[in-house]
Amino acid sequence: MSDLPVLDHWVGGAAWPGTSTRTAPVYDPARGEAQREVRLAGADDVAAAVASATAAAPAWRDASLAKRQGVMFAFREILNARKEELARILTSEHGKVLADAHGEIARGLEVVEFACAAPHLLKGEYSESVSTGVDVYTLRQPLGVVGVISPFNFPAMVPLWFLPIALAAGNAVVLKPSEKDPSAANWIAERYAEAGLPAGVLSVVHGDKEAVDAILEHPDIASVSFVGSTPIAKYIYETASAHGKRVQALGGAKNHMLVLPDADLDLAADSAVNAGFGSAGERCMAVSVVLAVDSIADTLVDKIAERMATLRTGDGLRGCDMGPLITAAHRDKVASYIGVARDDGATVVVDGAGVEVDGEPGGFWLGPTLLDAVPTSSAAYRDEIFGPVLSVVRVGAYDEAIEIINASPYGNGTAIFTNDGGAARRFQREVSVGMVGINVPIPVPVAYHSFGGWKASLFGDAKAYGPQAFSFFTREKAVTSRWLDPSHGGVNLGFPQNT
Ligand code: NAD
User: Fold this and answer.
1) What is the pLDDT of residues 47-81, one digit of tens each?
2) Are residues 244 and 260 in the same domain?
3) Mutation to probe ligand 1, out of 213, 225, 229 (largest number of atoms < 8 A from CB)
4) Does residue 179 have its Cβ closer than 6 Å to ligand 1?
């Protein structure tokens, strides 16, 4: 192990080193240097976290809705008051620029606020007198201990897609964040503890495949919520299902933005640049392909390139537009697609490889890149690149475009840019994608609608957050009851209070 500080797990309401001696470096991607190490849990460490959660779960499940809601509100206040601290952690370990880090936190905060409505959202249903003197009602009860496994690209927001709702519903949670930018998870767990969440109800175990496999196989974990790349999502879904767990596994994406000739081309160009290069393209809802109808394609490509020339790539703390990529290996992989596309006949309109950077030379830099006339047979079109590489595919008309989108194995997000309401409505009906934008490039639903794609972008039938999350994190129980005698609680003139 190096002399760098080491990030511990968070178990039983405190930092905990665990027993495994394995660690991994955590980089500052804007400098290209390791800034700390993170512990990598073994199966024994995961078992200890699950044991702590299992011990804490019954009391949390039995805490009144008023009490659980109080913790949710307190966490919301603390997170809101201290979000600058969290944003700086995100920029330091992920590399995204500070303004974007704040955007990520704001979208996580939305789910925290939504979870404050848990008492309403957990209400069951009641049918009176289904038979003489007999009533039937349904209850929603927590699952017990649930597992959450999150990716590197939203180290705060993705955990916050799941934690607030799982906890508000009365579950205990074991979170395994990405080992590439793990500090945000500990920061969140510490703030939940300050908000009054009892020790053990939320644990963070750091690690890689070994820790993930231990979660998937642990008999006391009732469900797994996963977000990451498609091959791993599929593996998680299959393995956790085979171990009898409820699973939602959100996978990768290749999001198309269709621009029809009647669209506002300035709005479309702004949107393509914002959605293509925000967070250096490391977003599952990034636009990675613009489908431009031939008649406007030249104009649109010019407008996109003009805007790209104004972008500043560099250190996220220096007010730049776009930060570095997560690791050197990922940067090199993303950059390799520029050559792939060129070899396959595409035109490299803007090559980000030689970008001038406002940052340290060792950072994992790649500038915004624009590829035009990319053939759909090219790996640059087919693969999820997950970087600042925007491909333009030229199409004859709407029908060709919808065929291309629907042939994609992914179905996370898509957008249409048009001023024709009929075309937009037809698109919304015909497209095989879970989240659709109409003149909106990144259609991430608000917290009170659920988030999730179709096809290889989501394995399982439950989306993240929103109403579907309250179903996912609870089990419904139907009670059929007959009471023969009335009863009462005696005389008390005080105004009824919830305790
Ligand atoms: P990843 O699949 O490499 O890692 C995700 C998680 O899985 C991490 O916690 C990681 O430690 C773990 N993991 C990695 N390899 C594993 C293995 N072999 N076995 C078991 N666990 C393993 O994903 P990433 O690179 O961290 O994140 C980027 C990916 O996530 C992209 O594909 C992106 O599209 C996707 N993503 C999807 C959504 C969505 O909502 N659909 C949201 C964010 C990110």
Assistant:
1) 999 999 999 999 999 999 999 999 999 999 999 99
2) no
3) 229
4) yes
One domain for residues 432 and 461: no
Residue 382 lies in a domain: yes
Beta carbon of 144 within 6 Å of any ligand 1 atom: no
| 193 occurs within a structural domain | yes
386 shares a domain with 240: no
pLDDT digits (tens, 9 = 90+) for 353-363: 989 999 999 99
Q: 280 and 206, same structural domain?
A: no
> Which residue from 390, 392, 388 is spatially nearest to 373, judged by alpha carbons?
392
Burial grade of 338 (CB within 10 A; 0-12, 13-18, 19 or more): buried
Q: Ligand 1 centre and the CA of 142: distance in Å? A: 26
The structure's pTM equals 0.97
Pair 90, 238 in one domain: yes
Domain extent, residue 119, equals: 6-251+457-479
Pick the atom of ligand 1 nearest to 453's CA. 41
Q: C-alpha angle with apex 131: 127 to 137, nearest 5 degrees?
A: 25
- The answer to whether the CB of 235 falls within 8 A of the CB of 228 is no
Q: Give a yes or no: residue 496 inside a domain.
A: no
Q: Among residues 128, 164, 131, which one has the least CA distance to residue 146?
A: 164
Summarised one tens digit per residue, pLDDT across range 246-270 is 999 999 999 999 999 999 999 999 9
For the annotated catalytic residues, the residue numbers are 284
Residues 178, 280, single domain; the answer is no
Same domain? 247 vs 259 = no
Are the beta carbons of 285 and 442 closer than 8 angstroms? Answer: yes
The pLDDT assigned to 30 comes to 98
